[in-house]
Amino acid sequence: MEIDYNLIIGAIAVIISLIALLYTKSSIKLQKLHNEKSLKPLPMIETGDYEIDIYIKFINKGNGPLIINSIEFISGNKKSESIVNLMNDDLKFEYWNTFYVRNNKEILQSTDEITLLQKKLKSGVSASEKEFLFNLRTFLSQVSVIVEFEDIYNNKSIFKESLNRFSRRLKDKTAISRVDEVGIREK
């Protein structure tokens, strides 16, 4: 009986091709998984609680884009898409440097940010402005922010954070530090 080497070489070539196809399929799957994990958004709330500047910013610290589906503010049993709508009239009708009003699906690239609220005072804080800042900090310390978002692979997530860090300066109403003319903090 004669051995047909062409048939054996053909069979080996088919087997090697099938192995290569399986390897390619698993490589593509691993590459897709790697891309999904490396292009994840990482939401973060940054707050500024300074003497003349109070702000709340929503930032994407991840490597991938963050697609915002909704932003909601909660204070007690009240909810709103704008933090200003939750405020009492003494705070609501104040001049704000910036406050957030929702647009349709917003997209934050890596390191992009949205300023949700900002109040910047002129230098030198009067007694009425100190009272306003105290009331604003009191209000903000009771608010939570909920953001529903997704990544570019349609993986949906919910980010929730309390703004209770604004309460750190509310211990004693008279102990609110002030900035003097040269910028040194005093108690």
TrEMBL record:
The chain crosses the membrane at residues 6-24. It comes from the Bacteria. Keywords: Membrane, Transmembrane, Transmembrane helix. This is Uncharacterized protein. It comes from Kriegella aquimaris.
